[in-house]
Amino acid sequence: QEKSSRLSAALFGEDCEISHDQLFELLKYAALGKCHNATQPSWCHISHQSHLAGVVLIVLHEMSQLHFYKFYLQFKHLRRVFRHRFTLTPSTNFLASLYGEGANLKPQNTAQGLNFTTSDGLPKSSDLQSDPIIRKYGGKKRGLTSYTLTLEEQKKNDYPIKGSPGCKGYVYTECDQQRTDSSPLFGLDCEMCLTAKGNEVTRVSLVDAQGQCLLNELVKPETTVVNYRTRFSGITKKMLLPVKTRLPDIQNKLKKLLPCDAVLVGHSLNADLQALEMIHPSVIDTSLLFARNEGRRFKLKFLAKAVLGKEIQCEQKIGHDPAEDARAALELAQFFIEQGPAKVAELNLEMRLTTEKRAEISQNKAALQPQGCGVQKQLNEPPHLSKPCFLDCLQVTGRKPLLLGRQELESSGLCQSNLSTSNKQILQRALEDVPLSTFSIIQFNLGPEYIASLPLAGLFEKVRSKLTDMLTIYAGPFEEGFCLKSVKKEFGRCGPIQSLAVVTETYQPYVCIQYEVLEAAQLAVESLDGTEVAGSCVKVQRPVTAAVLDCDVLIKELELDVENEDVIYVAGLKKSLTEMDLQEEFSQLKDLETLFLPKDLQSGKHKNCCFLKFQNPQSAVNALEVINGWTTKGSKLRSRNALASGHLWRWIWQVNHSNLKQGGNILHEKIEQLSDSEQDLRKKVKKLDHHIKKLYRSLQNNTLCIVLFPGSNSMHGSQSGLGLMAIKDDRGRSAC
User: Fold this and answer.
1) Which residues form the signal peptide (predicted)?
2) pTM as predicted
């Protein structure tokens, strides 16, 4: 039985704020694993990383933690699926930090594969020695056997190996004859569709050393096709309907066509052999042959144009032609063998790629600029070479990361983007392309018109106002001359009080109490309404404002939130109790996993409440029955389901102690603007949540999915980001 990857994280209480470096640490390990020297992140743990089907990062552009809680009810899918959440330190430009923009190297840093060039564009001979191709193969010509992958190289690059546990049932080509420099070369390429089983071969092409096509056949997959990936594979449902050929038929044909000393050539050939479920001992992989620094790889399309002068995989065609790709890979290997490493190094492929990217970026920006407003840049300037960034590190997987979105993405030079692209179009592309990539970044956006109508200060003030109302309760009426100390003591047993004031405008006095945590206010309403306090039978209620009309719905949804379902809130603790005392006190509770004792983030003093996290929701329910009415150290405890146990507790505290720069009149005006467009915004956010739900459900099992609200850090104030993460299991839920 296939192992499932699991995700665990100690994101509870005060340990839930994550820096960008820590996030990149997770992404790098999830995508590359230990085999590429990536290390298990320090703040969370992925078990069975090698079984991850892929990593998908969904970035909600220009949105922060503030947006998530403003539109909490609309983000129904996010709060019901993504159990692990963390606060992300705010950034001026999250995508820039991800792509490594601004971290530029000077051209003389040849350790990164960046070479000086002569006036004719060729690298100086002194710099050829630092070229990765020369470092790997030397400068002299060699026979083809010098370029076949060793057994260790095949293992490192995920080639099917004879006798390997993961290759049971694979067919061996039985080409065991000793290879010589005269052994025949054969180009191989396959196209795959996504099926219920995973990636299955639907077309296979084999060409000989003269470029003659020996095999070019469609293959009927074993299981139902989930996604034909027509844009890449060229395969349609109609094409496969009459096909009778199955994988075993193709395996037998390949065995008959290949002589005993055959050398197979392909670009990232490991993926083709894995899909064919075949093992062949002697291969040349052109994605590794044309070596680059940092384990990065050139795309076949780029190499065909730069080395052979051929255009392949043209956008006008529907899907790739496997015979064309197989022939291109074969000719690239023949060129390398015939010309030798020195001639290939003189092509200065790294510089050509950088120049090509620069030209593409300039064209994109020029197309977006109004006529007459842009500054013309010369393409013959030395290219702007950047330090290998986070995404460069990921390219050691042999597959270019998939980047889909609107603005800002084109600045990386790695993706296809269009400012006019809608979220729906991005979703459709993602549904097609994400299964083809081991690492994907999908950027959704509310749109510039909605961002403009959503002033950060106005939004912040509305959220803070609503939170304040939800944290506030009114109790009364009391008799004249009542004991305020008794009231404070009784209501203080529900949780930490931020402020308490007597309301005297009424016929009889009332008390207004603002708590520091949502659970305390809700506990006061639930447990003290209709009881006798300070000699009076009191009514306990929240203020009646437009903002809290949906309070009951919000409280219910917070209780159902997957982050809270296995956590309970306990109040009435003596402040003298330490965390160790409480660990001992609650040790008898079954399946208790973690205890969080909140502290004042300024003074560091403990509060009179705590959160208990259990291994499962049922244990939390059982603990509630035990704790209610429990007395510890002479103090009677009160408890209920948690509402804001993790990062939300910290964020509420920050909201109540923060200010954004904004003038009073301007702020009032922008709040009014926000009210006018809020209905449209709710619909837009609800649709965004639905897009994420649809994308998440389409992911293969064992895919790590992270949704990021990047946050902001600007002259108008700083707003923390929010991350939500889960590994999809076979029920479309999260594996934790």
Assistant:
1) none
2) 0.60
Q: Which of 625, 652, 622, 632 is nearest to 520 (CA)?
A: 652
Could you give the CA distance from residue 53 to residue 546 in angstroms, rounded to a whole number? 46
φ, ψ for residue 66 (rounded to 5)? -55, -45
- What is the extent of the structural domain holding 275? 142-339
- Measured in whole angstroms, the distance separating CA 271 from the mean position of its chain's CA atoms is 23
Query: How would DSSP label each residue in 205-264?
Result: EEE-TT--EEEEEE---SS-EEE--HHHH---HHHHTT----HHHHHHHHHHHS-TT-EE
For range 127-133, the mean pLDDT = 78
Same domain, 579 and 501: no
Query: Of 183, 202, 177, whose CA–CA distance to 191 is shortest?
Result: 202
pLDDT on residue 660:
42
242 is a domain residue: yes
Report the CATH number at residue 483: 3.30.70.330
532 and 571 co-located in one domain:
no
Q: 608 and 512, same structural domain?
A: no
Per-residue pLDDT band for 170 (boundaries 50, 70, 90) equals very high
Look up residue 36 and give its DSSP letter.
G
pLDDT at 146: 95
% of the chain with per-residue pLDDT over 70? 76
Who wins on pLDDT, 102 or 452? 452
In this structure, the answer to whether residues 461 and 597 fall within a common structural domain is no
User: What are the tens digits of pLDDT across the range 389-434?
Assistant: 556 566 555 556 788 886 444 333 344 444 457 899 999 989 988 8
E strand map for 669-719: 703-709, 712-714, 717-719
187 and 293 in a single domain? The answer is yes
Same domain (yes/no): 327, 466: no
CATH of the domain at 146: 3.30.420.10
Judge whether 442 and 57 are in contact, CB under 8 Å: yes
Of 127, 114, 276, which is closest to residue 202 (Cα–Cα)?
Answer: 276
User: Prior bond to 477 cis, omega within 30?
Assistant: yes
Phi-psi region of 113 (alpha: psi -120 to 50; beta: other; left: phi over 0): left
Q: Is residue 292 part of a domain?
A: yes
Q: Does the residue 491 lie in any domain?
A: yes
185 in the same domain as 283: yes
Q: Which of 299-303, 532-536, 663-667 has the lowest mean pLDDT?
A: 663-667
Contact 304, 198 (CB under 8 A): no
Q: What is the mean pLDDT of residues 217-243?
A: 90
Same domain? For 542 and 571 the reply is no
Q: Please tell me the total count of domains within the chain.
A: 3
- Mean pLDDT over 558-575 rounds to 89
pLDDT averaged over the chain? 81
Higher pLDDT: 383 or 238? It is: 238
